[in-house]
Write a structure and sequence with these properties.
By secondary structure, the chain is an alpha/beta fold. The chain contains 10 helices and 10 strands.
Length: 282
């Protein structure tokens, strides 16, 4: 059994969410056993990884259908996050996209609904849709994804824009650009960041420093990469795990204790930014 409780992060609304959730990008697309993926998500719920992140884009709705199957009979245990594509982000388009997501997920509400990234629709129009969906009880909170500082400033200057609950962005040891300005900006305003692709879809795991630290700690390279993120205040990590074994590995990262020596070695191998960088997106 896990050694510790799941740490939480506090949304601007005052509600708390787990610091470690479950991502579902590329899940439900037939690349692996559906039964194994459903079992993984259900085990995650058992282990306290109750935040499940999905999107209408993932598998053209297949991921949402998979999540719906996994949470059937357990909806109230999950903090459910989905996203609207910018191509659907007009006022009526957002409302209809949300309703389609709810149908695929087999639920009457989302806990958090995000604009996946900025498109051509004025933010004011998408925000009006979010507010209407909140009033209708179809979403409880709303947020954004892939927003840089200038986008966040524009958003929060709009009427109702300060109700934004999270900004989901690409962030991991190899993608530290947000530390220059976006992370401090959000931290100052107590808007949590949600880190997607926290292990760079596995591409970083052969790095010598990660492997060396992992060996020293009796852990895996993925656990070290996750542990580096999870120690940060105001941050939620949403790694994907397509198998129960992988879910258990992710959960164990919460019990990892990185020393000052470990952190210094990671900083040398994956340097923090020394200037403003364009927001990176996968």
């Amino acid at each position: 059994m896990p050694d510790s409780a799941i740490p939480t992060r506090t949304l601007p609304s005052g509600e708390t969410i787990p610091a470690l959730g479950q991502g579902t990008w590329y899940m439900g697309d037939g690349l692996r056993s559906r039964e194994e993926e459903v079992a993984a998500l259900r085990l995650g719920l058992d282990l306290g990884l109750t935040l499940i992140d999905t999107a209408e884009m993932y598998g053209n709705g297949a991921s949402e259908q998979l999540v719906g199957e996994a949470i059937a009979g357990r909806r109230d245990e999950a903090f459910l996050v989905s996203k609207v594509l910018p191509s659907n982000a007009s006022k009526q388009g957002t409302i209809k996209a949300c309703e389609r997501s709810l149908e695929r997920l087999g639920t009457d509400r989302l806990d958090l609904y995000l604009l996946h990234w900025r498109g051509g629709t004025p933010l004011k129009e998408t925000l009006e849709a979010f507010e209407e969906l909140v009033e209708a009880g179809k979403i409880r909170h709303w947020g954004v994804s892939n927003f840089d500082v200038s986008d966040m400033e524009e958003l929060t200057a709009l009427r109702g824009g300060t109700a934004v609950q999270v900004n989901q962005v690409l962030y991991n040891l190899t993608r530290r650009g947000i530390e220059w300005d976006l992370q401090p900006w959000c931290r100052e305003r107590q808007i949590p960041l949600m880190a997607y692709s926290p292990i760079e879809q596995g591409r970083m795991l052969d790095h010598s420093s990660l492997k060396r630290i992992a060996e020293r700690l009796g852990a895996t390279a993925a656990q070290v990469a996750l542990g580096w993120l999870l120690r940060q205040e105001g941050l939620v990590a949403i790694p994907k795990a397509g198998s129960p074994r992988h879910v258990e590995e992710n959960r164990a990262a919460l019990d990892l204790q990185l020393s000052d020596q470990d952190l210094a070695e990671l900083d040398r191998s994956f340097p923090a930014p020394d200037r403003k960088q364009p927001l990176e997106i996968l």
